[in-house]
Structure formats: structure tokens, C-alpha cells
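Re: export button greyed out
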Amino acid sequence: MKRRLTLSLLLCALVLGAATAEPLSAWFATSAAARAYEPIRGELSSILADAGERGVPLELMMTRIAEGAEKRVAPGKLILALRKDLDNYTLVKSMISGTSPGTALTKEWPDLLARGGMALRSGMDAATFENVLLTSTAKAVDTRRVMDALITVAAVDSRMPLGGEGKRALAVSLACSTEKEARFSLLSSLFLRGKSGKLGTRDLVAITVSTLDSGGGFLQLENEIPRRLK
Amino acid sequence: MAGLALLAIAQGLHGETTLDFSVGTTVSGTDYSPSCVWGMSTDAQRIGDLGPSLFFDANAAFSRNILDAGYSGSADMALSAHKLLGRTDLGLKLEAVGVLPSPSVAGSAVAALSLPVTLNGSALSFSIAPMLSVDPLDSGYESAGLESVVSFMAGDFVLKPGVGFSVIHPWSGGLEYTLKPGMEISWYPSFPLSIAMSGEYRASGNALMEGSWGLDCVAVAAPAPRILLTLKANAFFAQTSKAVTLLLESAFSMAKVESNGGWSVPVQAGYVIVDDQQSFSVGLGLRYAF
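Workaround output, generated via the alternate export path:
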């Protein structure tokens, strides 16, 4: 019995190893940028195998490997960044699965994980991420829209620190708003307009949340901010 | 106004205050005028979910020439209340703006009341604001006017064509009329930069006053997490006079702190030309927000 179990596990590992080795081998065979990473091929393969075990789509990890190679990231740093990415994707997977259990079966799944990973990579903390996800999906907001709101707020926070509560309130308000997702990225520039008139970050968050929660969008916010400039 | 401000504060407003101090010098030809500038701005707000939102702002600035007794100063205060009825915003705004009289400036003390109403649509907003203002000083006036603006988004741009009309009665006698068609264009790209430009033409009904153009531009960028670059430019053109002002400021935040507040170091460079008389200025300051 014990031998049979060991054999089964070995077989699984071999199948998984073969599956993970395939995209990596293809990348090494076709990408000129890959040559510099030949010395860490074994570690890359191990990270991909780990991703497979955790249920993180390999294409996500391959995309990050290719991006790192394009930017000529040092091999040691690439390994560290990939391990951090894998932890982020695992965390996002766990949080999304908790709020929307059926999402993992959809074709949008890799895209959702990629967006969630980007939000964490941009500086969004896990506690705020989870709180925003829970609050917004409870209001029937699409998960992809929540991810976009989190990425947007992380981008604003990187230039104008919002504080934990500010990030949470802004992300929930943005996700639940009527504004188009395609325009979310304009929020950093709208905040900058307020900062140029010496408006405080807390004021900007309060004005934005109030405008969006009352059914307005960025057009109404753009009317509100100049009205408050000093 | 002061009573209303106290009332507003008693309504549980919370806010932020910024203190500015800078030293600099203005160079005009071979003349140097080093000066110290003190500034303070404070705001308080209560944004109500159900009741009206209240906003209170006060700003003051004072500049003192280091070499002689020259000085200039100004202060303004505004209290506004807004109430949303569906997507319609009803407002009431009281303003007081004072400029300290000095050997080079006559001074003024303007009080104004406006009642802005904004109709918000999903793709278009329309604002209309009737207003009254009065300056009780000898060189002052009383006036009544109406301003209206339409705003809409086109890609990353917000466009605001508008028009204003006012009737002015100076204490010295007579009546003046001004018509101000204008346009504001703001650009909000997907990276941390914003540019707002506005222009208006002021046509006067008084034969003694000539028509004039006013142009304003504010550009702001955050190229790195602790750096804020701001360029402000404004220009005035009439047949017999012109004035252009440019001010570039780079503010470096001393510490990455949560939310607002903390120290920053603004460095400023300015250029002014008034009727062919040019001057340059540089300044270094300290700003504290809390």
C-alpha cells in the first residue's frame, strides 16, 4: 500500500514536472533574452512546479519570467521577485476563492489573478485587499472591477499616501461607483490637480468618496475638486 | 462671516492647515528686493451623507521686504454649503477677500454671495451661479452677475465652455457691464500629470474700459513619490497693457507619511513681465501641513 502511494506521488510529480518544464523549455528555446538565465534554469523550473502545486496558472509565472528577462533583471533578483509573485498569486487565489467560489472555473481566472497580483505588487496591503474584495463583492460588484479599483488606488497611494482607511474607503467607493473601468487610471491625475491647489489627501478622499457614493463619476469629481482649490 | 465660520466649526467639521514660510529675492534690472513671505491656509469640512455638506476655507499671506519697509498682504475666507437632491447639487457660498492697502496697492475688501446649482448627468454637467458682491471701500463697487458652465469629458480631457455676465456699479458713479465668454480644458492622462488651461475674453460696456483676454494654466506632475512639480502661468492682454506671470515650484516631501501632513521643502522660480518691465524671482521655503 505504502509502495503504491509512493509510486502514485512520484508519477504525479513526473507529470507535473513535465507539464511545467514544457513552457520553460519552449521559452529557453525561442527567447534570446533567456540565455542569461540558463544558470538558474533549475530554480525557475522548481518555482513553476511549486506554482502548479498551488494551482497558480503557469502562463502567469511565464509572463513574469519573460517580463523580468526583457528588463534584464539580475538572475538572483528575478528568483526573489518570482517567489514573491507566487506568494501574491496564491494569496489572491485564496481570497477570490473565498468570496467567489466559482471563479476558478472561469476563463477569466488567470486575468483576475494577474490583476490581483499587480495590485499587491503596486503596494496594496493584503488586509485592505481582502476587506475591499469582501465589501464590494457583497454588493454584487464584478471581481475584475474590484481588482481594477485596487490597482488604481494602489497607484494613487504610491504618489500620495492615503492611509489604510483612506485606501479602503476609496477602493470600495470606486469599485461600487458608476464610473467606467477604462477611466479608473485618471484618478491619480485628478488627485494631483487637487494637490496643486494645496488640498489635503484626506480632503481629496472625502470629496471623491462623497461624489462617487452619491452616484457621480469623474466628471462630477472634476467639478468638485477645482471648486475646493485654494 | 466670522459667526458663520464659528457655526460651521461647531457643526463638527474636521480639517487641515498648511503653514508656509519662504525667503527669496526678486531681480528687476539691477535692483534686488529680498523678502520673507509667511502664509497660512486652513480648511475644514463636513461631508454629510444625509444632511448638507459644509466647507470652510481661510487663507492669508504676508510678504515683507527685508531691505526697506515695503510689504503686501492678503486674506480670504469662504464658507459654502451644498446639498445633493438626487444628482442635482444646490449650493450657497459666502466669500470675503481682503487686500491690505500699501503704498503700491489701493487695497480692497470684497464680500460675495453666490448660489451655484449644478445639474449632473452621466455624460454632461451644467452649472449656473447667480452672484452678488460688494466692496465698501471708497474705491469699491457693488455688482450682480450670473455665470454658467457646461462640462463634459472627451477621452482624457474635460472641456468646460461657459459664459458670465455682470453689472457693476462703482461708488464713483456710472454703470459698467462685462460679458465673459470662456473655455477651460483639463487633461488627466493615465500617468501622474494634470494640465488645466482656461481662457476668457472680458468685453466691457464702459467706453473707458477696453476688452481684455485672461489666460490661466496650471500643470502639476509627480515624477517620483516624494516630489510634486507645479507650474502656474497666467496672462492678461489688453490693447494698452499686458502682464504675464510664470511660477514653477518643486516641493520635496521630507517623509513618506500616511495620509496628509508633514514637512516639505518648496523651491520656487518665477518670472513676471508687466508692460515690458521684467522681473525674476527665486525662493526657498518650508511648508508644514497638519
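The radius of gyration of chain B is 21 Å. The button fix ships in the next patch.
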